[in-house]
Write a structure and sequence with these properties.
Blueprint: E1 12-16, E2 19-23, E3 36-39, E4 42-45, E5 47-52, E6 58-66, E7 69-75, E8 88-97, E9 100-109, E10 115-124, E11 128-129, H1 130-134, E12 145-147, E13 150-154, E14 159-163, E15 168-172, E16 175-184, E17 190-199, E18 204-205, E19 218-221, H2 226-239, E20 241-244, E21 247-253, H3 265-274, H4 281-291, E22 312-313, E23 318-319, E24 325-326, E25 329-330, H5 336-349, H6 354-359, H7 361-373, E26 418-419, H8 420-439, H9 445-462, E27 464-467, E28 470-473, E29 476-477, E30 483-484, H10 502-512, E31 543-544, H11 545-557, H12 561-574, E32 585-586, H13 608-622, E33 624-626, E34 634-636, E35 647-654, E36 657-663, E37 669-673
Helix pairs in contact: 2-13, 3-4, 3-5, 3-13, 4-5, 5-7, 5-8, 7-8, 8-9, 11-12, 11-13
Amino acid sequence: MAGVQPFLHDLLVTLRAPSQVWCARGGQVRPDGAQGVYHADVRVLSTAVVRVDDVEPEPISAGPSGPGELEAVGVLRMIDGPGPDPTAMLRRRRTVRPGQVVEELELSCATADPVSGRVTLRVASDLARMEEIKHGVETYPVAPTAAPDGVTWSDGSTVVEVDAPGASVEIDDDGATLVWDVTVTPGEPVTLSWGVRTEVPSVVSAPTSPEPEWSALTVDADDKRLAPLVLRSLEDLAGLRMSADFAPGDTFLAAGAPWFFTLFGRDSLWAARMLLPLGTDLARGTLRTLAARQGAVTDVDTAEEPGKILHEVRSAPLRIDDGTTLPPLYYGTVDATCLWICLLHDAWRWGMAPEDVEALLPALDRALAWMRDHGDADGDGFLDYADTSGHGLSNQGWKDSGDSIQWHDGRLAEGPIALSEVQAYAYEAAMGGADLLDAFGRDGGATWRAWAAELKSRFRGAFWLSDDDGPYVAIALDRHGKPVDSVASNMGHLLGTGLLDPDEERSVARRLVAPDLSSGYGLRTLSAGATGYWPLRYHGGTVWTHDTAITVLGMARAGLGSEAAVLARGLLEAAPHLGYQLPELYGGNAVGDGPGPLPYPAACHPQAWSAASAVTLLTAILGLSPSLDADGGLDVAPIVPSPVGALHVEGLRVGSTRFAVDVDAGGAVATSAS
């Protein structure tokens, strides 16, 4: 029976895709909620609890110690000496690598005499699938089997092996206890070790290269929050790198941990697009991977259509507790195809090798054709979506929860639904696609520019609304072609795409930085004045990091620097409250309403497009774009005044050329190339 989705906000995560460990603050992994050791979509250990003389260490510190590493420190007052000072300590050092987790347990003391104790590690496995964990399904331990140095579990496909050198092993039906008897002498720590290796059949795996596809960045700013945000974000992104079995030589970013630890069209595309100022290799891998499973036929069950880019890939069907069942290869997304085209165009502009671009042009032709031939289901001239399978996603834009598209009074919109931001993606894709066709000597550029111009004209007549606060863009059109009147963040994605004229962009930007949408920690997904607003509603009032960052970049590109600075400062204000790891989303409460932004308790962290948003902030603040000149340079047009003061960045790339950029507090720019 399904229960409630477990919370994540108070758990620590250590990961290297496709493996991850979620634990309590002291480092223990308990059979509770989302805690566990996972590989791909399987929880391979549900328990990993250390005790000394049958008492758990008292935690005093825990946190990441490096990429894929965690250290937890606890004191051992059950074996230390007399007096108020804790004089015996356990350091638990965890390292996660693809398919493997290794821990060192270091015991040390500062007692007058040696101390002795029995160290035990209780391990158990339920071999539960991620969807069961997410939906709070009750799970049960699987009986282990003895092995020479530990225990194993297997269900015929998944194999889990726990090794513990030097330990005795006590097995029961619910798990195993690994036992070491130790004596620790002052100044001579004792180190024990154990590890778990896993094999899980999966469509995703570790990337072939251990090194990230992007440049390392050096960042120094007057605002001291920016550099740690960028550093933590790039470390998190390195842990989300994956490859797919149908494109094993290419790398993409998994959408997020733990729930979306796989390939997602929309998420992986946006994250790669955000990282383009650091190189195009990730974009190339993402484009190739998705092109390898580009739609070829019409299939109602999977939502596949010719030319369409997929929504997500899993190793087994995904069953959601509202009756939704998604097949392992699912195409139910209205925006991924447009975003694939936009990424190809932008990667070309940022210096992706011409031969790599040219190899993807047949997929470009098919993607453009999908927009024209399949994207507009009801024939009204706008890209839209409707689930016709009866078991797919009811909403198929980035706000894909069931209640995300609603009227101001809280009523849900009826589909087919045409989202405002998807029309902007389509316009940008048509224009970018036309540029690519022209540049590579292919026909069709003029046709797609005309298509984009017609879309722009239709949009102006259909999506604009006005209320007491002035004009704004509706979140969507409903099945009757009526503009859904919620004031929402979606219109931020229109900025800088070319779909709006400058006056329209100024009107949108003004609404986005008003207090009903700008919380002071970022951009709310829904106006606080809407009936359906709630600061912890998934798409109805929370702040999504990537949503805010995309809007900041659009504002900067539209020349609306002061508005961009408002939202950029909001993300920087949130960052220290969230340990500089901006999660998938967080509460929409205003600055001053509590000590910081409210955690959204089930939010993924790290999340690819949330972490990549740190680079988007840099891009917007510096006004970065690849030069249209033949020399392939870097154009810099910073926001003035800078929301972060003086700023120095090294590690930016256009093609094979690296750039360093300095901007002083007054906006003066100096660049150097190497």
